[in-house]
Structure formats: C-alpha cells, structure tokens
C-alpha cells in the first residue's frame, strides 16, 4: 500500500471475457506516479491481493464484488478502495473507500464514458454551502489525518458549510484539541525534494486555460517545473472560481484555500490594491507563503493580463 509520499497502486480485476475492457481501464488510469496491474478473476483474487494495492477496480457485477470483499474489510483508514465497473463502462461505483481514492478513480473513468455513482455525502450533496471533506483537504495538502475518529464530526460540519478553512499552525507549539478537531500532519519532504506552492489570485470568471498558461510561465521563471508543485493555494475569497478549480484538477494538484487572517499572518512584500478594495492582503504572495513549507518566496507577485496574479514559494 502506498502512503502519502508514495506512488499509487491499482489492480483491475476482470473475468477472462472482460479482459479487453480491463485493459482499456488500465491504460486510462496508468500514469507516472501510478502502477496499474490487470488481474484475472478467481475466487480468492481479492483475498490474495488485499493490502497489496490502494484500489481495486472490479469489472463485474456489484453483487460479486460485495460478497468477495465484505469479509476482508477491517478499517476504512487502511482498507483499499473498491470501485465496480460494468463491462460496458457505463457506471463506475465506489463501493468502499470513496474518500480514500474510490471517488477520484470513479471520476477519472468518466473519460471512458462511465458515470461516477458517488454517494459520499460531502461529494454527492447539492447543498450550496457544502465544503470539501477533510479527506479531500488532506489529499490536497499532501497530509495525513492524525485524528481519524474526528472526521465524523468535521465532515458533518463540512456538509452544512460550518467547518471553515484549514488553520495553519507552525511549531514548536503545544495544541490542545477535543475529539471533534481533525488534525492534519503534513507529509515529510521526500529525500532530495524541493516542492513548491503556487499562490494565485484572479478577477472573477477567468477560464482554466488562462490559469494554466500563467502557472507554466511563472514556473519557467524559477528553477522548477510542474512536477515540483505540491498544490495551488488561494484565499477563501476565490474558492468559488470554477476556472481555478478546473485548472488545478488539470494540473494534477490540489487546491487549498486560506482564510483572511491566515493570509494577513503571511503577507508578502509586494503592495496590493486588494487591501483598499476588499480588505484582504495580496492573495498570490500571501497564499504561496502560507502554503510553503519554509515560507520563502521564489517568485514575487507576477501579473498576467490584468486577470491573474501568481507567486511561488517553498
């Protein structure tokens, strides 16, 4: 099983008659940081490989998959995700582990025509005030959840829009929390790694391509490339920008939003009109600094077309 620093492993399990479909699914999911194997179905295929993969994509009837994995389930924090796909790739159904990779894998299979049947409350809801689940936030931050039992309460709050943004606390500090506080611990930097955070602000309604062009140009001004980006950061003021969310998804990184107070605590050196106009510090620099491990700016605020500002920090 991978951890938050490792590659993801997926097994596509299929009967002999569905091997062509399994191959198409494997080709779609396979990537530079993801290992995908195709396994021929037999009675003990799940039991024999349980714990060896982060996710199983089962090309079969959901009833078969349910009966075969039910007795293997122990803990949602350690069990692999299981996604069922029919042979026609019409549906992709996360049976278990929706927040732990299942929903994401099911959504990726939409590229093959599948409809993701996502039922986890924080992702399936049509409530306008609902916020991302804490598991989603942890994945975006490349962090692990230290207090897993708290997520029932915090995801309920996210569902009703009452959780609010992640609060950053730097040590050395002693923090006393109750059992309804989800603590996220950032992953240790990989050996030789030099990850960076892109901080970005924008005017309303900017499209995804404009963000992508700006981010690539900004990275070109540093010694870093897209593979070095840990996540994109912005202020909660901009969390509703669809183009920004689409761009982060296409870039293959998480989008993290910081509240006004956090951004003021990490304000950058470049003066910004947003202080006078909306009472916020410059979003690009402050969000990059707030997100960076060391809080060191590598690229000060750079404007693109008067629509997007970008800063980069580590």
Quick recap:
The chain is α/β, with parallel strands linked by helices and 314 residues long.
Compile the SSE list and pairings.
Layout: E1 8-14, H1 19-29, E2 34-40, H2 45-49, E3 55-59, H3 62-69, E4 81-85, E5 91-96, H4 98-108, E6 115-116, H5 121-124, H6 134-140, E7 143-145, H7 151-159, E8 184-186, E9 196-202, H8 208-220, E10 229-235, H9 242-251, E11 254-258, H10 260-265, H11 274-278, H12 283-291, E12 297-304, E13 308-313
Parallel strand pairs: 1-2, 1-3, 3-4, 5-6, 9-10, 10-11
Antiparallel strand pairs: 4-5, 7-8, 9-13, 12-13
Helix pairs in contact: 8-9
Textual characterization of the structure:
The chain is α/β, with parallel strands linked by helices. The chain folds into three domains: 8-119, Rossmann fold (3-Layer(aba) Sandwich), CATH 3.40.50; 124-186, no CATH class; 196-313, Nucleotidyltransferase, domain 5 (2-Layer Sandwich). The protein has twelve helices and 13 strands.
Number of domains: 3
Main sheet strand line-up:
2-1-3-4-5-6
Any low-confidence stretches, pLDDT <50, length ≥5? Answer: 1-6
What is the CATH architecture annotation of the largest domain? 2-Layer Sandwich
